[in-house]
Design a protein that fits this description.
There is one protein chain. The protein is mainly alpha-helical. Helix 1 runs antiparallel to helix 2 and helix 7 runs antiparallel to helix 8.
């Protein structure tokens, strides 16, 4: 469910963008989106661990730091709305604090779309999902930062939709497999002995 909620909330946030800033509402939804997305991605990484342990060992920490960057951008949008500061002014003021700028924003921020891009390639390579699913994840990861840099809502909606569709598939498939695994269990016997999706 969290694999669906993450990108779905991200798509929803785009409809609350304002002219010179994403605003308080969009920023709040972005923070919640990153939290949901991270929970879902951790579960997906666990299902990938048996086939790609090296990728998971590297990719999971990168994804966590990327999600931190996403939360930071959401909080920045909230502050822009609270203190009536445009996005351009906020970025300029952030330059006055290089440690925060580089540690959280310029480093962690790009890690999230980068981690999604590599995830799409891995999904396509190990064929745990249909090839178009992996391709859409990688394409969405490329368009995602472009939409945030240009601040064009139409590009943002396209990027968010590109990411929602493959994760909608992955999330629904995970939910259906969980039901199949839990279905034969009686009175809680053997509950949790067989991980969903494996």
């Amino acid at each position: 469910m969290f694999l669906i909620l993450g990108p779905a909330l991200n798509l929803l946030a785009g409809f609350f963008w304002q002219n010179d800033t994403q605003g308080v509402t969009a920023g709040t939804i972005i923070v919640l989106s990153n939290a949901c997305w991270l929970i879902g991605l951790i579960g997906l990484f666990e299902r990938l661990r048996p086939t790609t342990p090296t990728y998971v060992a590297i990719g999971l920490p990168v994804t966590v730091f990327g999600a931190i960057g996403g939360v930071a951008y959401g909080v920045q949008s909230i502050h822009e709305g609270l203190f009536a500061v445009s996005h351009a002014d906020a970025v300029e003021r952030l330059g006055e604090h290089p440690f925060a700028a580089y540690a959280v924003y310029w480093t962690c921020g790009p890690l999230f779309p980068l981690s999604l891009f590599v995830l799409g390639l891995v999904l396509a390579k190990v064929r745990v999902a249909p090839l178009p699913v992996g391709i859409m994840v990688s394409l969405g990861a490329v368009v995602f930062p472009l939409s945030r840099i240009t601040r064009e809502a139409s590009i943002a909606h396209l990027a968010d939709l590109f990411l929602l569709l493959p994760f909608l598939y992955l999330g629904l498939r995970s939910l259906s497999r969980s039901r199949v695994v839990r279905g034969p269990q009686r009175d809680g016997a053997d509950a949790g002995t067989r991980p969903a999706g494996r």
